[in-house]
Amino acid sequence: MPKAVLLLSGGLDSTTMLAYAIDAGFDVHAMTFRYGQRHAAEIDAARRVARHYPVRDHVVVDIDLRTFGGSALTADIDVPKDRGDADIAHGIPITYVPARNTIFLSFCLAWSEVLGASDIFIGVNALDYSGYPDCRPEYVEAYERMANLATRGGVEGTTPVHIRTPLMHRTKAEIVQLGRSLGVDYALTLSCYDPTPDGLACGHCDSCQLRRKGFAEAGVPDPTRYAAPVA
């Protein structure tokens, strides 16, 4: 079984990707970040998911991006709510965390070098997403090129780095359908940007709206626990 490092947030996308990687025969080492995000309940979700699946190990890395702020997820800035599809699809929202995926992938890259793993999985998506610049194919391709210039295994050719993005060109509905085919229990997951202290989803942030839309379009019941009824 080839080793792989996988970024696990505990959300819908990363959990589907985990099920996909395991089904594809990878020996998964999962990494989650406690980075000062307001939605720290996602750490609990990631732990639930990691316990549910046969991951080789699961580490939670502590960094504090509140040092820089600049995002509604790491600073005292309101999380946008009830935005329409056109607003969600336009521009880079305030929930974008500066350089987050670059930072996360760098930790994954370091761990993959130690493990002797060539494959790094990240659940980025270029279709049903909130406009983050570090979720685009161009970004992933550039990072992979850099990684192969910056690592011993990449330079020597023994463990070339491959950034795996199996969800990149799937709609949220297609991701839900994929997860269902793999037996994913989405009740374990949390996608909300502004959950309650006990882990209930707000139902109104961009992430909740994209999640709800995905389940509706996939024709799959949404098992998400919401803080209040949503239309």
Structural key phrases:
37% helix, Rossmann fold, 5-stranded parallel beta sheet, alpha/beta, 231 residues
Q: How is this structure best summarized?
A:
The chain is of the alpha/beta class and 231 residues long. 37% of the residues lie in helices and 11% in strands.
- Total strand segments: 5
> Secondary-structure element sequence?
EHEHEHHEHHEHH
* Rg over C-alpha atoms, rounded to the nearest angstrom: 17 Å
Spatial strand arrangement across the major sheet: 3-2-1-4-5
Beta-strand percentage range: 5-15%
Q: Indicate the CATH class.
A: Alpha Beta
CATH topology: Rossmann fold
What is the general shape? globular
Uncertain segments: none
**Whole-number tally of structural domains:** 1
Average pLDDT taken over every residue: 94
Q: In CATH terms, what is the architecture?
A: 3-Layer(aba) Sandwich
How would you explain this protein's 3D organization?
The protein has a single domain, classed as HUPs (Rossmann fold), CATH 3.40.50.620. The longest helix has 16 residues, at 100-115. The chain has eight helices and five strands. Helices cover 37% and strands 11% of the residues. With 231 residues, it is α/β, with parallel strands linked by helices. The chain has helices at 12-23, 41-52, 85-88, 100-115, 137-150, 152-156, 172-181, 206-218, and strands at residues 3-7, 27-34, 57-62, 119-121, 162-164. Strands 3-2-1-4-5 form a five-stranded parallel β-sheet, with helices on both faces. Helix 1 packs across helix 7 (172-181) and helix 7 (172-181) crosses helix 8. Strand 1, helix 1 and strand 2 (27-34) form a beta-alpha-beta unit.
